[in-house]
Amino acid sequence: MAYSHTVCGTRYVFPSLRVLLAKASPPRAGDRLAGIAAASAEENVAAKLTLADVSLKTILAEPLILYENDDVTRLILDRHDTRAFGAIASMTVGELRDYLLSRATSSETLARLAPAITPEIAAAVAKLMRNQDLILAARKCRVITRFRNTLGLPGTTAVRLQPNHPTDDLAGIMAATADGLMYGCGDAVIGINPASDQPDRIAAMLRMLDELIQRYEVPTQACVLCHVTTALDLMARGVPTDLVFQSIGGTEATNRSFGITLDLLREANEAARSLRRGTVGENVMYFETGQGSALSAGAHHGVDQQTCEARAYAVARAFDPLLVNTVVGFIGPEYLYDGKEILRAALEDHFCGKLMGLPMGVDVCYTNHAEADQDDMDVVLTALAAAGVTFIMGVPGADDVMLGYQSTSFHDALYVREAFGLKRAPEFEGWLERMAITDATGQLLPPSPSHQLIADVHAAANESEPAP
Amino acid sequence: MSDVPRDPWKHLCARTPARIALGRTGASLPTREVLSFALAHAKARDAVHARLDRSALAVQMRTLGLATVEAESEARDRATYLRRPDLGRQLDEPSRERIKAAVRNQTSDLVLMIGDGLSAIAVASHAPKLVEAVLLHVNALGLKLGPTVIAEGARVALGDEVGELLGARLVAVLIGERPGLTAADSLSVYLTYLPRRGRTDAERNCISNIRPGGLAPEVAAAKLAWLAKAALAMELTGVALKDRSHGGLEGTIGATVLDEQGR
Q: Is B243 helix (H, G, I), strand (E, B) or coil?
């Protein structure tokens, strides 16, 4: 179906919803690379004006990728909550924006609405929202998940402790882990990106983190971010596995490029739940996404990158994850060129995920060939803290020495806590105080040279040999 | 500059290159750490935006006795290069004509293409030494070498068209890697059998991290020679060609494993 709008005597025609959404998207490198971006600034706004008058029912009726051809489309439509949709069924996209921002629309209302929001609806309304709209609307969404602690409570934000090492040296990983814990980080997860995909090496890392968590009774969870098939294999071998990680995308073909199917994710979710390792809840999945992955895999079907990203959230929410992380600036400048595009994408992803009911975290990050620096990341981090981001990354000194990119640091986490008065997950906050890492108000205590954690890690490092 | 002490677990730094035990003033980094990070990032940024001095490199190649052709991709400037990897994989028309003119209906076993990639600094610093080391092996193996192409605005796959136009059985692309905070001058080599436009990265072999403190040029050249000989014998490159040469670091060679955005 074609859509059109006349702006000052010029008639703009958009042959399909897919084209309309792409042209209405705020400018970014990936859509230009795909050849689907608006040709002019005026066409971009004309597309927004057109989109504002499109009804939500029309969006439901015109799948961007055919139902027959794509299992993500089938997942979206088969699981759509038509009863919840009743509350917004008569609205246009423009009216939905007004509704989301209205004071009368409460956090409870938005929570009930989440299963009625398809990725295409979320993406469409995001395209009509300014950055401050994305912040205020997301801030109202409350998503709480649990495994060994409670994430997403109002007034809190959590940190994934990311202690990567270029050769997976166990003592090196533990040194960075201790550094992060001493800085009060690690409530979202202690999550290692392994350099090696060898199952035995990954098992050794999982055992080491499990021992740490048990020994000090840390109310948090561990994860080594390996492929879901590796995790299934390790669980079958009895290797202690808290969370199952997987990168996911918004089309069946993108997921195929990651070597996964929805059935495989279902199997992994069930296997991890059956281990019953959570103490306060059983959200066991950790997903990562990022705008541009579908285009990068040649699997975008002409759909713009922000909409493809939102479709990945439909995959995520089918498995009740503990954590969903959009790795926003990792993919490089051909998808998000500079700090402005990274900021926009971060706020869009966070908003769309939250509106769809997901525990959204953001890896606030950039590569050295992007037009971005630490000042840009400060702005992105500040905006996300205002938006109520569920978690961010904590990398020593913001410099990931394994993946070769810059993320947020333990110090950055202290910054947002200080600037916004944000607390950690309550169970973790209590543990830090018991460990004499923080005082009763959650402030870090002056570091003690004789702290037990540091002494133990140092002793263990002296016993072990460096990895080859 | 900054009196704020490191954290009292600085001794754990022995086991990781990660930036741990940095110390803090309030919630924030000490001045020395802010500036140390800024310096590392500045080096990486300068490497990304540096232009390759093609004529200086061409003079060095001719000194080694090589015929050279200079080329440019369709990515006209750095901003375009960074946004449009597809353009960095296509020769511009004048370059195509120059390369065709250099062929004169001859074929070759191996063509070297030296491209700026994401670090012209890596290329300027390490490519001449690497080529010199490679030439010793080329002569020992009796390989017929085509003209050496020096390309600006180059992605790895630009070598496919270059190698095809030059009728080469193998093309070795020497190219600057995406700079990291630790090193901004890492060079890689990608080897492709029967280069043709449209080859995929699964059809190449890669030797990476060639720099001081990484892989030495002599070691990289030996690996390349081993791979070239095996590729010509097996008539393929890529995932089916596993490195069995000796003396290498695990992970620095193999079927291409680097992320796409780095290329």
A: coil
> Do A411 and B179 lie within an 8 Å CB cutoff?
no
Nearest to A410 by CA among A188, A130, A222, A224: A188
Whether B54 contacts B60, CB under 8 Å: no
Residue B144 near residue B182 (C-beta atoms within 8 A): no
> Which residues have C-beta within 8 Å of that of residue A85, sequence separation ≥ 6?
A56, A60, A116
Section A283-295 average pLDDT: 97
Type of residue found at A342: I
Minimal Cα–Cα distance from B195 to chain A, Å?
A: 22
Q: Is A245 helix (H, G, I), strand (E, B) or coil?
A: strand
Within 8 A by CB and 6+ apart from B214, the residues are B183, B186, B252
Average pLDDT, chain B: 91
- B180/chain A closest Cα distance in angstroms: 6
Of all residues in chain A, what percent carry a pLDDT higher than 70? 99
Per the CB < 8 A criterion, the answer to whether A193 and A163 are in contact is no
Tell me whether residues B15 and A166 touch, CB distance under 8 A.
no
Q: DSSP character for A68? A: G
**How many whole angstroms separate alpha carbon B7 and alpha carbon A458?**
14
Q: Comparing C-alpha atoms, which of A133, A70, A140, A75 is closest to residue A105?
A: A140
| A59 three-class SS | helix
CA distance A79 to A116: 9
Digit-coded pLDDT (tens) for B114-159: 999 999 999 999 999 999 999 999 999 999 999 999 999 999 999 9
CB A202 within 8 A of CB A450: no
**For residues A157 and A192, what is the distance between their CA atoms, to the nearest angstrom?**
20
What's the pLDDT at B246?
Answer: 53
**Could you report the predicted ipTM of this complex, rounded to two decimals?**
0.95
* B160 shares contact with chain A (CB less than 8 Å): no
> How many angstroms separate the CA atoms of A100 and A105, rounded?
6
Count A/B contacts: CB-CB distance under 8 Å. Answer: 142
How far apart, in whole angstroms, are the C-alpha atoms of residue B237 and residue B258?
16
Among A residues 163-202, those touching chain B with beta carbons less than 8 Å apart: 163-166, 169, 171-176, 178-179, 182, 195
Q: Which residue type is seen at B211?
A: R
Cα–Cα distance measured from residue A191 to residue A119, given in angstroms and rounded to the nearest whole number = 27
Q: Under a CB-based contact definition with an 8 Å cutoff, are residues A282 and A272 in contact?
A: no
Count Cα neighbours of A266 within 13 Å in the Cβ-side half-sphere.
Answer: 5
Q: Collapse the DSSP code of B246 into the 3-class scheme (helix H, G, I; strand E, B; otherwise coil) and give the result.
A: coil
Dihedral (Cα; A329, A335, A341, A343), 10-degree rounding = -30
Report CB contact under 8 Å: B18, A418: no
Domains, chain A, with CATH or none: 3-140 (1.10.220.70), 145-434 (3.20.20.70)
For the domain made up of B48-262, the CATH class stated in words is alpha beta
Residue A92 carries which DSSP code? B
How far apart CA B171 and CA B161 sit, in angstroms, is: 10
Dihedral in degrees, nearest 10, Cα atoms A441, A444, A449, A452: 60
Distance CA B50, CA A368 (A): 13
Q: Is the pLDDT of residue A413 over 50?
A: yes
A126 within 8 A of A306, measured Cβ to Cβ: yes
- Chain B positions touching A448 (Cβ under 8 A) are 8
Q: Which of B6, B10, B15 to mutate to test the interface with A (most CBs of A within 10 A)?
A: B15
Beta bridge partners of A363: A327
> What's the pLDDT score for residue A465?
67
